[in-house]
Amino acid sequence: MSLKIAVLTGGGDCPGLNGAIKWVTKTALDPRLAARRAVAFDVVGIMDGWKGLVEIDPDNPTSRDRYLRKLDEETVRTWDRYGGTNLGTSRTNPFNPKNDRSERLIQNIEKLQVDVIVAIGGEDTLGVAYRLHKMGIKTVGIPKTIDNDLAGTEYSLGFDTAVNVIMEEIDRLRTTAGSHSRIFVVETMGRHAGWLALNGGECSGAFIILIPEHPFDIEHLCSLLQEREGREIRYSIVVVSEGAKPSGMKEFTKDVKIDDFGHQSLGGIARYVADEIEKRTGFETRYLILSHLQRGGTPSAHDRLMARRFGIAAVDMIVNEDFGRMASLVRGEITSIPLKEVVTRGLKVVDVDKCYDTERYNGRRSIL
Ligand code: F6P
For labelling alongside 92, which of 12, 36, 45, 245 has CA 20 to 30 A away? Predict the structure, then answer.
């Protein structure tokens, strides 16, 4: 028996995606493993996520060239070293109620004779995989999002690299902040989850970390900075998550556009915080929005390893006919959980009681 696996990446890109594609391909096509399996595989990459599977015209060779990539061991050999996704990505939702293209998607899956889809993505991309699974189409998932907020897994691809970017940039900022005795407010991504800000801020020794899970009081924030002034410290780093909000206020949004999955872009809080600090304390303050730099660059060692493990696990799931599941990390071990749990449990946000100090506005100083 031979099965055709289609791999796609959806949602925001991040380092680790190419590694996951590589290891799905290598594991599926591994000649030693193939000899022991009752099934052989073909692997094809779909360009641009769900958009590719919706837009492709399987009867048109030009369209097939545009949206399909044959994947073999030679093609993917070096992919794990590179960030982004060589298969492209999109935020297309074929089940968008305002423009439902799911019928075409299903027809295309049939016409392309795809037997199983490996969807590498976050909540939205995997939500589509789950809906297809419920309709009888075989799907498995691999978790990715720099926000690390997917339910059912302790790790999502891209998070470690993004935290490293935050740390490196803050290390750089410290020299100029120190020379000028300035406060720097650094805005991270993360949407409604504070993991990036919290981990990035903790590992770079930020003085203040503001997360979406705990609305902050601007007066209290300023008094923390003022208390510090008498000490021999010439500057402070304040890390703020894009989804953080002052008590009684809403999240800051960049524009009014809503994407296919109903999300609005967050951002702009760093400027507000910097302006308020300067106005209320008189301390010279600058801000920096790290933005998409956090999703750029080459994957860290951890992201390469996790991409490899999740990619291998995805093929194991296919071999074991464990469809409708996502590779996941639970208590430090690779396993898999139903896609249903990923999409219905809600996002995994920071547990303030466990991880956050609501007085210091920083990570907790008691762990056990
Ligand atoms: O979900 C990943 C993420 O990077 C968020 O942290 C951020 O809010 C969003 O994507 C940005 O999306 P876009 O690339 O569409 O601007």
Answer: 245
Active site residue 147: yes
Tell me if 315 sits within 8 A of 27, measured CB to CB.
yes
Task: Tell me, yes or no, whether 121 and 166 share the same domain.
Answer: no
List of residues 6+ apart from 93 with CB closer than 8 A: 50, 124, 128, 260, 261
- Show the tokens assigned to 126: 């995997």
Ligand 1 binding pocket mutation candidate from 265, 289, 293 (most atoms within 8 A of CB): 265
- Cα 284 to averaged position of ligand 1 atoms, centre (Å): 30
Nearest-angstrom CA–CA distance, 248 and 122: 30
Residues 203 and 282 in one domain: yes
Answer yes or no: do 34 and 113 share one domain. yes
Q: How distant, in Å, are the alpha carbons of 64, 211, 326 from that of 193?
A: 38, 7, 21
Q: Domain residues for 114?
A: 2-157+299-344
Judge whether 358 lies within some domain.
no
- The 10s digit of each residue's pLDDT in 190-213 is 999 999 999 999 999 999 999 999
Regarding whether 325 and 304 lie in a shared domain, the answer is: yes
Query: Whole-model pTM above 0.90?
Result: yes
Q: Which residues have a Cβ under 8 Å from the Cβ of 132 and sit 6 or more positions away?
A: 105, 106, 109, 117, 139
Q: How far is the CA of 362 from the centre of ligand 1 (A)?
A: 24
CA of 150 from ligand 1 middle (Å) equals 14
Q: Is the pLDDT of residue 231 over 90?
A: no
